[in-house]
Amino acid sequence: MLHSNVTPTASGSLTNVTGGSVRIDESSAVTESVKKVAPAVVTISSSSSNPLGGGSGIGSGFLFDPRGWILTNRHVVSGADALTVRLNDTRTFPARVYGIDTLTDLAIVKIEATGLPVAHLGVSSGLQQGQMAIAIGNPLGTFENSVTTGVVSGLGRQITAGDAGNQSAEQLNNLIQTDAAINPGNSGGPLVDSGGHVIGINTAVSQNAQGLGFAIPIDVAKPILAQALAGKPLARPWIGVFYQPVTKQLAESEHLSVDYGALIGSSDPSSPAVFPGSPGASAGLRSGDVIVSIDGHRVDRDHDLSTQILPHLPGDSISLQVRRGGSSIEVKVTLGTLPAQSG
Fold first, then answer.
1. Residue 246 φ then ψ, to 5°
2. Computed over its alpha carbons, how large is the radius of gyration of the chain?
3. pLDDT value of residue 164
């Protein structure tokens, strides 16, 4: 069990340039934010008769629509034969999995109820390091609606997350890093800003260090929330290439003509850089190509390739600006549907 060592100051003062004093009351900001979001936070209990399915488990989630729509982590509900949702007001409902995200550790769960409180969604694209972050959830499945506070420690983080038994692992990209304490059972709960808006979904904690929690940005979740409310299956756009973000160091080592973008290439020699039969293959993309923009929007460290295509739907056509050797070419790609992850 890991706990954050960060304890926010209840109140403090800053001296402005004119010599006056500006009062900062963090405790009231946290209190007001929790009042807005906590009623929509739920506890999700799962059970499985198959030992390989994990037996029983518990996690968190939150309502994003008053008609019983809940966002949570995929690993909270994966392999479950039955799900039960406990609301903040102590009512319990049987639940079903509406859909599993093929891109991230997210899932959408549905209960049959109406008029429920909802958490208001914020925007994660404009987050700044150092701004307040509040995690709400049910650590260990026992301490319902626990609140921990900290800051946004980093953005665009990439980690490999394993399950509780270390039987499987997956790569999670473009995460928010926070030092707000996240523990088992917090998974699927909201990460909230000082205004009471959800900016992320708590998903993982580092087992190697304290104060390292991670959340999926809410902007990443929004497309699948819209699909669910429209009654559509959850689907993510797909190009079908392995790539690594271009840094100045990578540009120098690989003798690239640009120091930003996405370099197509696989770190596994046995895996092709471009999936055979994928949209990228059909469009003629090759290993060694550097994708520098999508529809005129630059691909860089703050605007990753996968993040850039998220607002699109499978079937949409996009225009890639590609550096191939010393030349610049335009490549049209019709996006496919990201296949379901195995395991």
1. -85, 125
2. 21
3. 35
Give the separation between CA 160 and CA 303, rounded to whole angstroms. Answer: 21
Separation CA 223–CA 235 (nearest Å): 9
Q: What is the pLDDT of residues 43-72, one digit of tens each?
A: 999 887 766 555 578 889 999 999 999 999
Contact between residue 278 and residue 332 where contact means Cβ atoms under 8 Å apart? no
Phi/psi of residue 322, nearest 5 degrees: -125, 135
Q: pLDDT-based confidence at 207, cuts 50/70/90?
A: low
In degrees to the nearest 10, what's the CA dihedral of 225, 226, 229, 232? -100
Q: Could you give the residue numbers annotated as active site?
A: 75, 105, 187
pLDDT score of 24: 47
Q: Which two tokens stand for residue 141?
A: 């499945």
Burial of 332 (C-beta count, 10 Å sphere; 0-12/13-18/19+):
exposed
Q: Quote the CA–CA distance of 271 and 269 in Å, as a whole number.
A: 6
Residue with tokens 């271009």: 246
| Cβ-contact 60, 70 below 8 angstroms | no
φ, ψ dihedrals at 27, nearest 5°:
-60, -40
Cα–Cα distance for residue pair 109/116, rounded to 1 Å: 14
DSSP state of 152: E
- Model confidence over 151-196: pLDDT tens digits? 999 888 876 654 333 333 456 777 899 988 887 777 899 999 999 9
CA-CA distance, 236 to 313, in Å (whole number)?
A: 7
Burial (0-12, 13-18, 19+ Cβ within 10 Å), 156? middle
Element spanning 223, H or E: helix 218-229
The pLDDT tens digits of the residues spanning 307-321 come to 889 889 899 999 999
pTM: 0.81
Please write down the HEC assignment for all residues of 9-73.
CCCEEEECCCCCEEEECHHHHHHHHHHHHHHHEEEEEEECCCHHHCCEEEEEEEEEECCCEEEEC
